Amino acid sequence: MVGKVDLVMWTKNGSRTLPFVLKRINQVIPSESVNSRLIVDDQSTDSSREIAGSFGWRVIPNEGNGISNGANTALKHVETAFFVSFEQDLLLARDWWQKVPRYLSDPKVAVASGIRFVNYPLSIKRIEEYSAENYRKSEKEELYSPYVKTLDNTIYRTDVIRRLGGFPVIPGSVGVDCAMSQRVFLGGYRWKVDYNVVSVHLRHGLKGELAHNYWYGTCSDELERSMFQRNASARRMLLRFLFSPTRGLEIAVKKRAPEAIYIYPLMRLSYLRGVFDGRRRAVR
Questions:
Q1: Residues 187 and 222 reside in one and the same domain
Q2: Residue 118's domain is classified under what CATH number?
Q3: Is 120 in the same domain as 226?
Q4: Which of these three, 201, 228, 254, is where a domain ends?
Q5: Taking residues 204-226, what's their average pLDDT?
Q6: pLDDT tens digits, residue range 112-165?
Q7: Which domain holds residue 233?
Q8: What single-letter DSSP state applies at residue 102?
Q9: Ordered DSSP codes for the chain
Q10: Same domain? 209 vs 195
């Protein structure tokens, strides 16, 4: 095993989910394996800081704002050879500690994580499962993919992450996980994903998922510039939307989720709207 680890998390107004999230972490990761627990708070106006303190987490302010700066602020305080990061809406898989850290016994693996699916609606979960199955095939073929890699149930080699320059700084904090996976790959290391270790992403239902897709679209150019020094391809996004009814039907049949027929196109439309609205704002 990896010995004692530091646990880190970044929060912003997470009081709705934090009690469940922190309780589960305490249940999954033995206290004797924990060196310290640190939460980087981003000016929460709710009771997030008080909740964190009641579970024994030390709270410090984010030196900037957003996930990028929160992650790098946390990294400055890590004292152990390996550390684990979580996010405030992730209910950790009960078998995570037994299965995920062991991948770092391979010196070429710098990061390891499980996967997570939303708690509801079921149709969104089935869409995420379908996508994960496709990404898993790519990984088996040893093709690089930045997807299905997240920062919310993840263990790292501290020295490697610091040597690589820490976490990528993306202004909108969207896709920091994707950009980090690229940084790890270009640095000559691997990010191992265990597709059998499934955590729960505590989300807000269909309306919240569509809003999230829209927000992701508004920030898509920032992420593309960070990773590829170019804007996102509007043509590619438009084609994905135009073919989304076909893909939605395929998901509905393969995953026995009839609602995917219309929900998947709605997700692609929300993303596409975000892309164009984000660009309109940028030129004002």
A1: no
A2: 3.90.550.10
A3: no
A4: 201
A5: 90
A6: 999 999 998 999 999 999 999 988 887 765 667 888 999 999 999 999 999 999
A7: 205-282
A8: G
A9: ---SEEEEEEESS-TTTHHHHHHHHHHHS-GGGEEEEEEEE---SSSHHHHHHHTT-EEEE-SSSHHHHHHHHHHHH--SSEEEEEETTEE--TTHHHHSGGGGGSTTEEEEEEEEEESS-HHHHHHHHHHHHHHHHHHHTT----TT--SSEEEEEHHHHHHTTSS---TT-TTHHHHHHHHHHHTT-EEEEEEEEEEEE---HHHHHHHHHHHHHHTHHHHHHHHHSS---HHHHHHHHHTHHHHHHHHHHHTT-TTHHHHHHHHHHHHHHHHHHHHHHHT-
A10: no
pLDDT in tens, 72-94: 999 999 999 999 999 999 999 99
Which pLDDT tens digit goes with each residue over 66-76?
999 999 999 99
Same domain, 131 and 221: no
Pair (166, 82) in one structural domain: yes
Could you tell me if 210 and 185 lie in one domain?
Answer: no
Would you say residue 222 has pLDDT above 90? no
